[in-house]
Specification:
- The two termini are 32 Å apart.
- The protein is globular.
- The chain has 15 helices and no strands.
- The chain is mostly helical.
- The model is unreliable at 1-10 and 140-149 (pLDDT under 50).
- It has one domain (2-259).
Length: 305
């Protein structure tokens, strides 16, 4: 178990140190120091337990590992916020990081635009990592965990049936992350087409695909054009859809997608709720029809996902 948790900490390290290389000095040091500290701890966990029998990972251990992994990566992920001085205390930094990794979206910051870009990017990246799950990421690139992989996968992603995607759990995790990355890349390109710079497009893509909502602006998405808002609405909807259905869609099995009762109810709930709220905005508040529709649809999709 400690070996698996050590790998989870190692991923925190990897993202931090690589991110540090592309940021100015005042962003570089907090991210680099955090990455090195976590690297040492992660290696220590792994070395101390690498010879233990991986077959000892059962369903109970899987649930424990997943629960502890979220706590551990959040504890370590808070370090850049503390070292950079943007968080008043470690407790505040831990809150922000836990909110990011769990894609909750709550924040301690009131002036987002005053934060260094490196910290803003790390903040958004915690969303993106948490969106698909650190355990699924581990399974995708660390076949060594494949022996106990099913228990970890079931504990982390209970809504997906692995055998419907691929018979091998590692291949399933890779396919899920492949779809996740593909959607993120497409969304980033569409946002840049609408006038966003690369930095804002990446950060908003991370928050959208994770369905968490971290932004780089104090006004969030309200500060951007209707085109940007419609694109984000579409991808919030896609991000909230069962990823098994994305796989079927990419394979051309559209009948299987629509035959899914969960997807039909999900779509119906969003459409009906949006129409009701749109009517309220149009007739009682007096907003124009298009803005009433856009605001209603955005809020409903954001809440449902």
């Amino acid at each position: 178990m400690l070996s698996c948790l050590g790998f989870s900490a190692w991923y925190d390290r990897g993202f931090m140190t690589e991110l540090a290389l592309f940021n100015p000095l005042h962003d570089f040091l907090p991210l680099l120091v955090s990455g090195l500290v976590i690297m040492a701890i992660g290696i220590g966990f792994w070395l101390a337990n690498r010879k233990l029998d991986q077959n000892s990972i059962g369903k109970r251990e899987g649930y424990i590992i997943v629960s502890l992994a979220w706590i551990i990566i959040s504890l370590f992920g808070a370090i850049p916020f503390v070292l950079s001085g943007v968080a008043p205390s470690y407790t505040d930094a831990f809150f922000e990081t836990m909110s990011g990794f769990t894609t909750t979206g709550a924040s301690i910051f009131t002036d987002i635009e005053s934060l260094p870009k490196g910290i803003l990017f790390w903040r958004s990246l915690t969303h993106w990592i948490g969106g698909m799950g650190i355990i699924v990421l581990s399974l995708a690139v660390l076949p060594i965990l494949g022996i106990g992989g099913m228990q970890l996968f079931v504990a982390e992603v209970p809504g997906i049936t692995p055998d419907k995607l691929h018979p091998r759990i590692t291949q399933t995790a890779k396919r899920l992350w492949g779809i996740y990355v593909l959607l993120t890349v497409v969304l980033t390109a569409l946002l840049m087409f609408g006038g966003m710079n690369l930095f804002d497009a990446l950060c908003h893509s991370f928050g959208t695909m994770a369905t968490g909502g971290f932004s780089t602006k104090n006004d969030s998405v309200a500060g951007f054009s209707p085109y940007i808002q419609y694109v984000i609405i579409l991808f919030m909807f896609l991000a909230g859809t069962n990823f098994t259905l994305h796989y079927f869609g990419l394979k051309g099995h559209f009948k299987k997608v629509w035959a899914n009762e969960e997807f039909r109810n999900y779509t119906f709930l969003i459409l009906v709720s949006s129409m009701i709220i749109m009517a309220a905005l149009f007739f009682t508040v007096g907003l124009p029809a298009e803005k009433s529709f856009r605001d209603a649809l955005f809020q409903v999709v954001s809440i449902v996902t």
